[in-house]
Known about the structure:
Elements: H1 2-24, E1 41-44, H2 55-63, E2 70-75, E3 81-84, E4 95-100, H3 108-126, E5 130-136, H4 138-149, E6 156-163, H5 193-196, H6 201-204, E7 211-218, H7 231-235, H8 237-241, E8 247-254, H9 267-278
Amino acid sequence: MKKSRLIIGLMALLLGLTGCGKLGGSSSSADLPNASKYEPTLFFHGWGSSTHAEDQMAHSLVNAGLTKTIVRATVSTQGKVSLSGHFHEGDYHPIVEVGFEGNRNSSSRQWGRWAKATVVKLQQTYHTKSFNVVGHSMGNMAIMYYLKDNDRRLPRLRKQVDIAGHFNGILGMNDEPNRMKLNREGKPEKMQPEYQGLLSLRRTLPKNQIAVLNIYGDKGDGSHSDGSVSNASSKSLRYLMAGRAKSYQERRIVGAKAQHSRLHDNVQVDRLLIRFLRH
């Protein structure tokens, strides 16, 4: 009798733990009515950074009433994506904070593969049909090389926010203050290899689909940069996307709080994000 009771007790405990795991884990499209209506906004952090860099921006959207849901996606160096948290019924614009474990990898192409793995995971889990992205620094290159892949089987990208993007170089590495020259279209006189790798987007980017907001910082110290990236490098995005984007706009943030690493914690940036993603 004691042995039978022990077995029954253990079975009950296991069942209870299984139930708790389901409640605390990720839900799927099977749990959500109208799953295809959910349009998440994915945040991609910069080199050497993490989801912590995305927190202020994400919570500003929550505080503005755009969503109540923040999910975290952790991407391993092998491209395996784990979701923490889940979408909630009726909250159609959830946030997904994406964290790359290989955050010191310097390959933009690899970051693009990890971005794709994240989108695929959301598609498999929630039958996602469309989404938005916000990138800071190297996170922008993850977005751009994801777009370069041009896989039309994946969800539709609707809105793209680029913050402090170093599309054509970084100060002290392959650029210097006030050296880079752009023509009227935003085309650099001298193109870095990674920028050249993105030129195909001028032909392959889905036409009239993506609304783009490009935010860059100017410390106001005469360098015309955010201290790490020249404004010209950030603005070179225009040449890659403006001709095919649904819309393209640039916004400059000026002052000490426009420094490269402070832009993701800048209330002016938060306001621009809220306005752009709301409409």
